[in-house]
Amino acid sequence: MTKKELKFWAAIMALNIIVFLPWYLFSYTESDFLPLEGLMEGGIYDRFKYLFNRDNYDLFRLSFDLVLICILIYLFRFSHRLSHVVKFALTYYLIIVIYQIYSAFFNLIYQAPEIIYNDFPLLKNGVKIVIENFSWLNVLSLGGFLALVFIVTKLFTYLARSLVNIRMGYFSKAIIALILLFIFTGLIRYRIKTKPSLAVQFVAASIWNNVKRSLELKETVEKIDYDDFYELNDQYDFRFDKNRPNIIIVFIESYGRVLLDHKDLYLSYQKTMLEKQSKLALKDFFGMSALSTAPVTGGGSWLSYTTFSVGYRLHLQSLFFNFLKNKEFLKYRHLYKWLKHQGYKNYRLNSQYDENKFSIPWNQYTSFYAVDEWVRFKNLDYQGILYGFGPSPPDQYALNYTLELIRNKEQDPFSLFFITKNSHTPFLLPHTTMKDWSAWNELRGENQPYRFFQKPTLDNYEKAINYQLDYIFQIINNSSQNDLFIVIGDHQPPALATEGFETPVHIISKDSAFIKGFENYGLTSGLLPDKTKTPLKHEGLYSMLLRELKRNYSSDSVSLPDYLPNGIIFGGDQDTK
Prior knowledge:
By secondary structure, this protein is of the alpha/beta class. It is 49% helix and 9% strand.
């Protein structure tokens, strides 16, 4: 093989590696650089199959797009349009690389297949965050991308010249034959599929499928008939005439069923929950628990807690935005609108320090979630160390301060919603609670940054969840008022949970008759969920909660609202119980 041929194949190899680099970089902690394990184990058929289809996102794959690009340049090598063809090919190549970055991010971080119609609002907001918040990491990222474009341009220039001038020897022809055979076998075996696990990939086909899915989803979303929601308003039109409880809803970030599935985590979790259960009993609190299936896993917390409050499975960002922006939806009496109808004052705690970084549409959220009063960082009187996501004060401080603030001024029943901030991946500090929650405000030191790309560990996850459970149940134990607590997970922990969308849900109150009613839906007594039972669904919890509230706090305890275990279903064909 000549020196020119070696340079040609080096350029091809470099361009091919770049196509698959995003998937490898986003999953490098779970993927082996050399995919040898699957090739060395099992029978011949299993090894052959692994050669063409594997979930180890290594770089040893072939880009069908790059082969097509080479063929295109080769066919036009003597044409006066060659320079235009090369520019087109370069643009095509850069598009597939950018698409690979986007698809790897959404699949591996959000653990959801990419749909551009669904993902565009998140992408737009992400770009805005990057532009508005200067950091050296942003500069390095932009510099790295520009360097990549420069390298790719140089490689393409050399590739085009080589395809015009090079004369292939027998060795190069043998490599070409092997590549074509490998691609032909892969395409025959899997056709032109767009799975990222395939060793032969056609990214242009993935892009086309994404466009088709986006158009179909757009059509589906735009056809939503809100009459299915309005019909429930009549069922929900009742009043409390007994002692109304305060309702405190805490969604614990990343509180997932992995705690029950993982042997080492379960032993610790079981011990923790049984201890907390005993302490609750001493204070005359009763609890019921179950697993509930979230609409998402590993990301999209807002989809999960909104699904819970509206009684409809919002598993896609496009659905959420459609509901958020559609004035017709505001006529529907979801949980917080219903509470407002009952005379409750709805509080919502958002403790993150740098709110502007996340471009939160406060007015829109206030209307959508029927918020009477926000409790934000500026209301928390906090000067201590900030942690992780947000960054934010310790959740123990934020929730205790908020409850004290509310109780000091409210005589009427209230509702409070909070999704925790400190238990975001990678589950770093804080890990311990303070005996006196206000002591957090006295600590001084450097803020603890949010390390998005750091690999989470089971040990840190266990500590982070124990911290959340410790202070939450400490708050419950110290409650002497008529409070109903709902503690629930938003989704499974990213990167640590490999399967399942279920999260624990606990309903806790001093009203034993009220609590006992949840046995009818599959919840079990205590704080330890029974994973052998069929899980509930986040979209079914609202109708379940309303039934039991009406049964216990309204004189009309006969005509109960329908229980919709699968949430609201379009078309009026509801699965009721």
